[in-house]
Amino acid sequence: MSLGDVRHHMLDVGDVTLHVAEQGSGMPVVMCHGFPGLWYSWRHQLPVLAAAGYRAIALDMRGYGRSSRPTAADEYDRRHTVADLVGVLDVLGVDEAVFAGHDFGASLVWDLPQWAPGRVKALMQLSVPRVPVSKRPPSELYAMAAERHFLHTHYFQKPGPADEELGGDPERFLANVFWALSGAYRYLDIWRHPGGENGYLDVLPEAPPLPWPWLSEDEFAYYVSEFQRTGFTGGLNWYRANDHVWKEKQARPDEPVTVPALFVVGDRDPVREMMGADDSMAGLVPGLRAVHVVEGAGHFVQMEAAGEVNDAMLAFLAGL
């Protein structure tokens, strides 16, 4: 199969309309991207899952691509984003699905078994492990760290500066952030730069010319065209919603994830280094069946090592 077989839908799921790309039939597998992603971030998984007998469903998450892009950060909290995923299942006539998440998509999907009980068959999570909820609001922790070095999560909190900087040159930003977070660069080197007056483009490395082994010029052009049209505010609002999500979890603490789960991570993913070892999730995720570490891969593991990630997914799905 190829992406030419993908079916595209615009689904009304309540307060937003979501763009969904799907391929194949069988057990539904819903894929949720992070920042700065699109449904297209799962382009290597859609046809492979479909060919293996699954109904592969990739979303433009709220704030991205062809989906609605609310302007208020509190509209990206769990109440809204969980409702999006439940709404997709309802409109598509799906009772229960396997969910896959990457980056912010993974953070959301880790919460889904608790927030949408009975709708989640299993989880396939990429890059972002399940971690305990912090004792202080995330924005406070970001501000403390930003006193020592540049931290993008702090820089992104204030509406305006990051939206204008990244939206002013989407092509340069996307190339540089994809490269910086890949296995070819050590992302935490940007912490050598102070915060203060620096913007994100001031501290990111300049990417080498395309193509790269895992990203062609045509593939990159799709990202550029979409973000030139939409800007980055929708994606940045996922960062600005972190305090809202934290408050929700004070009233509704996390429960252990007991559904079957797979975790896949690149051994050069900076999130792995920042958030702790991925083999320490047993207490938080008693359903964890396997941790698969991909040598040489960075944060965008499903693109950088598509074949290995696909094999891990298919082996996990076959065991359900």
TrEMBL record:
Keyword Hydrolase among UniProt keywords: yes
The AB hydrolase-1 domain, residue ranges: 28-128
InterPro entries recorded: AB_hydrolase_1, AB_hydrolase_fold, Epox_hydrolase-like
GO MF assignments: hydrolase activity
Record Pfam families: Abhydrolase_1 (PF00561)
Keywords, alphabetical: Hydrolase
Domain of life: Bacteria
SUPFAM superfamilies xref list: alpha/beta-Hydrolases
TM ranges: none
Protein name (Swiss-Prot/TrEMBL): Alpha/beta hydrolase
UniProt organism field: Actinomadura darangshiensis
Lineage of producing organism: Bacteria, Bacillati, Actinomycetota, Actinomycetes, Streptosporangiales
